[in-house]
């Protein structure tokens, strides 16, 4: 399902593999170490190859206490079809990070970073909807509203939520249809 914004970017949700999608920038739901992990983060690191880890290590040098929740930074995408991986750390519900503004910031900061590096198309996973314990329906609502309301939307052609199962796809599609 997709919607055309009054500004310019086409916003859509699809079921698929975020590591295989052809966009300029893929957003990674990273952990604060930026060194890879499980879920989407692990899949992106595996598909991108060792270059992504090396660029992540360089980025991490600026953040000795870990990359901050809600921030975003673009690094070269290694072997992915995308040019950039935008690292962002979602809030972890399980450790008390329950402020929706932190989750919203993941999406808006990633869009800011995408535009900064010249990306015209961006793919997002369902940040924090997995092991970080956020309710997927809340993630869909916050993600779609953050993207729709972003001032950066006019600078993009396509924003796609790439979801790994039918339940997430249904939730994001419902939000896009609202």
Q: Top keywords for this entry?
A:
single chain, Macro_dom-like, globular, O-acetyl-ADP-ribose deacetylase, 20% strand, seven-stranded mixed β-sheet, Leucine Aminopeptidase, subunit E, domain 1, Macro_dom, 178 residues, alpha/beta
Question: What report would you give on this structure?
Answer:
The protein has 178 residues and is an alpha/beta fold. It has one domain: Leucine Aminopeptidase, subunit E, domain 1. Helices cover 36% and strands 20% of the residues. The chain contains five helices and seven strands; from the N terminus they run βββααββαβαβα. A seven-stranded mixed β-sheet has the order 1-2-7-6-3-5-4, sandwiched between helices. Helix 3 crosses helix 4. The longest helix is centred in the middle third of the chain and has 17 residues.
């Amino acid at each position: 399902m997709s919607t055309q914004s009054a500004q310019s970017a086409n916003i859509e949700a699809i079921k698929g593999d975020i590591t295989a999608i052809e966009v300029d920038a893929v957003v990674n739901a990273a952990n604060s170490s930026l060194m890879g992990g499980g879920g989407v983060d692990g899949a992106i690191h595996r598909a991108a190859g060792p270059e992504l880890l090396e660029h992540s290590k360089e980025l991490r040098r600026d953040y000795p206490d870990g990359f901050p929740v809600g921030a975003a930074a673009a690094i070269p995408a290694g072997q992915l079809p995308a040019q950039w991986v935008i690292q962002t750390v979602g809030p972890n519900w399980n450790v008390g990070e329950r402020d929706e503004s932190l989750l919203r910031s993941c999406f808006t900061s990633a869009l800011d970073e995408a535009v900064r590096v010249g990306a015209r198309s961006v793919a997002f996973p369902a940040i924090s909807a997995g092991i970080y314990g956020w309710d997927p329906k809340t993630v869909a609502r916050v993600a779609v509203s953050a993207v729709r309301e972003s001032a950066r939307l006019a600078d993009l052609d396509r924003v796609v939520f790439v979801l790994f199962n039918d339940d997430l796809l249904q939730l994001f599609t419902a939000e896009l249809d609202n």
